[in-house]
Specification:
3 domains, 6 helices, 40% strand, six-stranded antiparallel beta barrel, Thrombin, subunit H, 297 residues, alpha+beta
């Protein structure tokens, strides 16, 4: 028993070297992150780096106290993930060991490392209590449910298996349960390995919305005007026309292309768009399933 305890302590010590603190928005957003590779890529939660003043300023603090400015290299609101790139050239950072989240089983022992309430490098332990769809995070990927203790400051830190491998990215608390993004979903997102999905089949340009429409429809400041519709595409089948203005998708307003792209990245067989046409606002259901040969995702 003592040997097992000692081995676990060594495993946690090694894994802790890969955990960083992430500060954004002038310090308003504070969370954790994990060093993904030795050259300065750090994985964290989207919501950690978009707090404060648009999340533009991001600082990463290593375990040894070194501080680096970082840029957001890639982000997904739907998956609640963000990839940071340290601005300084580095080549010897302690990257996390990545496990296989698909191999997790209910009842398996897991650990979390993070900085709850500013207490750096805090370790909590628990067991996997279930798996499910990540609807709470706005996406359709799987999540890991466990009874580890999370608090503000844990977001973006790793969920580890008993071998010290990262099997998830801790994201949120749901009641008394902790939800973590499976590391396999994160790896696939980073590698660009997304599930096949159809193109919407339109070209768009951002346009500023008139004040009357913003007041009446409670829309954002801008929308996306359809400037071309591909024959036979999902948009064509749904009846979208050149000149239509997309105002919202999946219940969210559109302020630029990112919300639409995020919704598309995690859409199922259909998605609902809010559209303005000739001063009239309506909703349309777009069937995203491929029709006929060549209608690839």
């Amino acid at each position: 028993m003592e040997a097992i305890s000692s081995a676990s302590a060594r495993m946690i010590e090694r894994a802790s070297e890969s955990v960083v603190q992430v500060r954004s928005g002038g310090g308003r957003g504070v969370g954790a992150g994990v060093i993904w590779d030795k050259e300065g890529l750090v994985l964290t939660n989207y919501h950690v780096v978009t707090r404060g003043r648009r999340g533009r300023r991001v600082r990463v603090i290593l375990r040894d106290g070194q501080r680096f400015d970082a840029e957001i290299a890639r982000r997904s609101r739907g998956l609640d993930l963000a990839l940071l790139q340290l601005r300084e050239s580095l080549s010897d950072l302690p990257a996390v060991s990545v496990g296989d989240s698909d191999a997790l089983r209910v009842g398996e022992l897991v650990f979390a490392i993070g900085h709850p309430w500013g207490r750096l490098g805090t370790i909590t332990a628990g067991i996997v209590s279930g798996m499910g769809l990540m609807r709470e995070l706005g996406g359709r990927a799987r999540y890991i449910q466990s009874d580890i203790t999370l608090a503000p400051g844990n977001s973006g830190g790793p969920l580890l298996n008993a071998r010290g491998e990262a099997v998830g990215i801790n994201a949120m608390i749901f009641g008394s349960l902790a939800l973590s993004i499976p590391v396999n979903a994160a790896s696939a997102w980073l590698a660009g390995m997304k599930e096949r999905r159809p193109r919407l089949g339109i070209r768009m340009l951002p346009v500023e919305l008139p004040a009357t429409l913003r007041r009446e429809d409670r829309s954002g400041k801008s929308g996306l005007m359809v400037v071309a519709v591909e024959d036979g595409s999902p948009a064509d089948r749904a009846g979208l026309l050149v000149g239509d203005v997309l105002l919202g998708v999946a219940g969210e307003t559109l302020d630029g292309f990112e919300p639409l792209l995020d919704a598309f990245a995690h859409a199922g067989d259909a998605m609902r768009l809010r559209v303005a046409r000739g001063g009239v606002v309506f909703e349309v259901e777009v069937d995203l399933r491929a029709r006929g040969p060549g209608r690839a995702a």
